[in-house]
Batch of 2 targets.
Target 1
Amino acid sequence: MSTIAPEKYKENASKNIADPVLQKALSGLQERLGPATENLYNSLPEGHKMRTEAHQFRRKAIDNLDVLLSTLVDKVRGHGGIVHFAKTAEEAVEICKKIALDNDVKTVVKGKSMVTEEVGLNLALEKEGIEVYETDLGEYILQLSGEAPTHIVAPAIHKTRREVAELFTEKLGTPYTEDPPILTRYARKALREKFLKADMGISGCNLACAETGHIVTVSNEGNIRMSTTLPKIHVAFMGMERIVANLEEQQSILRLMSMGAAAQEIGGYVSYVGGPAEVDHGDGPQEFHLIIIDNGRSKILADPEFREMLCCIRCGACLNVCPVYGKIGGQAYGSPYCGPVGAVVTPLLFGINNSADLCAGETLCGACKQACPLEINLPRMLLALRSKLSEGDPDWDVQPKSKGENLIFASWQRFNSNRKVYDLLLGLMRVLQHLLPAKQGMISRLPWPLSGWTANRNMKKLAPKTFMQQWREKKEKKGS
Amino acid sequence: MEREKGEKRLMTTQKEFIQDISTALGRPTPVSVDVFTVAPTTAEQDILKAVRQRSSGERQPFIKTLQEVSVPLHLDFHPERSLEDIRQAIITLILEKDPEWGTKKSVVRWDHPLLNSLNLEAAAELKDIPLYITNHVAATSSADDLQAQRQQTRKEVEASFIGITSADYCIAATATLAMKTRPGQARSVSLVPSIHVAVVEESRLLATLKELYTLLKWDEAEQAEGLTNNLSLISGPSKTGDIELVMVHGAHGPRELHLFVVSDHR
Amino acid sequence: MNKPEKVTLFIQCLVDTVFPETGAAMVTVLESLGLKLDCPANQTCCGQPAFNAGHTREARAAAVKFLDIFEDAEIIVCPSGSCVNMVRDHYLDLFADDPKMLVRAQAVSRKIYEFTEFLVDVLGVESVGARFPHKVTYHASCHLNRFLGIDRQPRTLLAHIDDMTLVEMKGADTCCGFGGTFAVKYSEISGAVLAEKVKNIVDSGAEVVTGCDMGCLMNIQGMLSRKNIPIEVKHIAQLLAEK
């Protein structure tokens, strides 16, 4: 369950930093996945160039998205599938709702799909009296507890086994146990009933292949295969950018995605779905619907500064190395897209101004770019977003964020452009710093706008003489 | 703009949707671009050649690789190589394993030449255990009959605790089974029963995923068939780490995956 | 590259105003190698804080000033990875739409070097004959390590300091949480990231933590001091100047 509330970033971060259980879960996750993914990259049989090439494949696909989507659509229709186009979230939801109502659907099982979160599908179906079940174990736990995900791939990682035990006892009526295998079996049993009775299965699409006309789903639990094999209708939601031209490119990105997502050579279950089951095949869905969704993506496409973001395949590798994410967790971002990827995608999809904290709240350390299987330059795009926020941008409907900050930097620039003024100001500050509380040359409380610094650290005092002054004096001494 | 059957005009049409993308790309008039590959690269030709010319002896190292990668994947790779030994091993599995749901045992399998040759149906030990084959659906049936036949298959798959399939290919490096969809070979056999048993011919072994994709893309027979409407790649049993990152096997798919490779020399 | 006639120093503003001893140490090392040094008196900040906070206009003004001052230099050396990253890479972004300025930025981009990079890659120096009988841990700062790809160079120089024990901390290349104005605007998040870095430094058992960026080191020093942890912070130039 995701609500879009990125403006609560600081507040949520603060809460999460103070949560020792979450802190332990996040560091456990990062320590396990971050290095494991890096090891896989380092042992790629194709070498490091594979990632650079994969980035180019994605870039080529995005630069030719109109052609690739048209090809995919033709092929899927040729396979007997039905294709829909949704310009907006509302439209995507309406299309799915209509398919469900037309077919008298009572129960829906869902494989993990971020884009359905983005468009707010579950609530809309539930309003029609349709039962909707998330079937990824982590998502299922969150659906039962009514919480937002902490991680793209491991959404319920913040829940302890004890919390899951209590939740299952309360909601499923199962005997209390803190044993993860037994808890998993309880969920397996509860969801098996849903899989067997569901009349519609909903999936996302990790990365479609245009030339063959297939969408591709990946999971380890087998829940997506269950959702797309057993119910009579399969509806796939696909962000319009999730496509690549050729099968050989698709496999290269798929493998890299598996490495980024879960440090695997390949996900446990990979399915290429081209259409409904053929009439003489024993099983499989009898209807296949593909909903291709724009919802703000063509705007990103049109901006050369941000087009690269459409290369992202949402594997979550950047989360597993980000120092900031590692402290604040996914819920702090207030968006279905969290972590470094969320810090760029959320503002672009849901508004830059109300996501201002997401744009500014990173260290720009570059770990995300290094961990990205496709080497997407997230720091560059964060900088571009910050620039829009400080200067405003009518194209993106951005108002300058803070007049106060703009004023500070404008005056900073004036001092910085003239060494004499700069030195005068330094002299003044050197005098004033004696008014501040300090011990052994370390200031313990700075005034606004620097007070944040001394909230948890001290600050060394300005030196009595700048290096430049010392240098000048040294030269003069030599000269005399 | 002509609309496809079933795609009632709700709001956005394909034309409008694609047009917006073309405009965003700065080319409002459609262009013809060369993005699709039409011939294998030299490296891909080499892979095709290597796979086609590979001898049985050259495939032996794959067995060892499979044994090794099976361990971390939690996959049961069985040493039996002859059809007779494999048959016996599967009979033992059926007799010794317990059903997960309920107490009654039944087994379901694909209609597949290799599995047919195992002739499990003739095993005296299994005479009390129903052995279903997913070959009910016939293209010539009426719509009502098709529905009934599909329901029959579904019922049998749901009831079975073991599902036996073969695979188009088995990739040594990742222990991946590749399965296209075909008549008689229901997808749910490898998915719904608690235990999945896969029996593949040694000649179907490939070294890497790269080899698999090169074949799928460029081999004439594969090209002619296409990926079909459902190609599944399965690497090990179903698993999850969603509770405190503790790895648990048997999330929603099979809890166990048993793999047998039939020797070429039989 | 041959040994340059004259090296022009670009002194990071933090070094200039708060840590002049770092600049002095760099001068000591470079002069001991027989280099002639020059240090333009009117230099100020390269504009990185403004750039990272999205104030492109102000960053551009700082960049213009920098180019005016430094473009005649033969080679520029700076004791900060992040400032070199700014001048070498981000000046090109700032002037991407201004062909005239871009040419000037490119010229300067090609001749600016981070201090350890200059020693090892340009001069081919691995040992400067330093001696520092202490246990030291190295923080691989992000802009230096990831964006400039400089890691081997400082580690080579450290490995050649006599009597020094280099102890590797856990996550040496993990961010310290500084991030410029981020540390002030999001001090709670920054502090949480920094606390982990400080813990890893303490756990390493080092007496001194070193690195190539005074920004990160100032951040680390701030928390060490706040927590009364007696671990010293020294720029790598200070270690290399020790005899």
Note: Chain C has two domains: 6-122, 135-240.
Target 2
Amino acid sequence: MSEHDPADDQAEHEAIQSRTRDTVARATHLMRQHTAAGWSAIEDRILTRALNAFRPSAPVRGRHDGGDFFVASDVVVARLRRVIDDVPEAAAERITCSTDDNDVLDSVTVQLIAAYGAPLLQLAERVHAVARDCLEDLLGVLAPAAEQIHTHVHIGDVSNDPRIVT
Amino acid sequence: MHGERRRSPRGTSDLDGPSVVPDEVLARQAGLGDKEAFAQLVARHGPSLYGYVFRLLHDAADAEDCVQETVLAAWQGLPSFRGDSSVRTWLFVLARHEAQKHLRRIRPSFPASGSRPAVNLDQVAQEVRDLHADTAAEAVEVALLAALDVALRLVPERQRSVWILREIEHLSYAEIATVVGITPAAVRGLLQRVRATVAATLQDWR
């Protein structure tokens, strides 16, 4: 009868551990590679539903020849962002609107990211100008005049990354 | 679709590149109403979110509902997103929150995080053995993947989340801690436990 060698047990134990590690690694790799098949089938539906959902937003009063109308402040912010982002060397970081008791826009605060080295005062003036034009276009005669609206331009960040601000 | 020039994105950790818009930029633009930017964020992270939620819920319809709520919450929450965590981490926070809500809704007995899952251990062990027995089929890899899924069902949701977020999504311990609401040290401990469970469950697999 052969003598039992504890070293054999140890070797077998280590072999099992090694095999298990390999198995787990292989299974984990498979899970990483496994693309959730269902996602592509539902992606468009999920995105559309989300974008059509109500996003809490205060009304802002506008006025045109036919009378008063209301625009969601969300829409005002989105329009401002578009025109501000089109200003070279500037990007909108945050835009907040406030309205009076009659839902008339009385304050817009624009926080900017400026490209490194941009002349900040000129940049702020350009942003102020395009924001004013945008509001006039959007809200008609109820858009506050330049001297009436409190447009604060804060330079919240400076970046030389062209992917952030160009 | 906005007509403005698109600022080239800066990528997340695994998406860095000169032409990849960073998550933070997309989030800022989406927060200011840019739907195209939001669509890019969803396209970038949707597959991971869906995969994560699917492995928590084990049901395609439930996973879709849950990811729908996650994406909706993201769209509505982006205007107030302050960037305290990365966008990706924040999205996983939303996804886990929605998954837990969903589990509590469809299974009122869903255990609180950290407690044992409502899984019959003998049944799970038998499932692994059955999968193992099927290795003669050409779908060995499918069976192994399924065995791992079964092994993960043995652990509580929180441990499962930690394992998936680390091993599949490669989040850091700090990011996982944010998602799961514990400390990074606790993440390390949970990860050790779930790794041990997975290893023990798959030990007999060849």
Note: Chain B has nine helices and no strands.
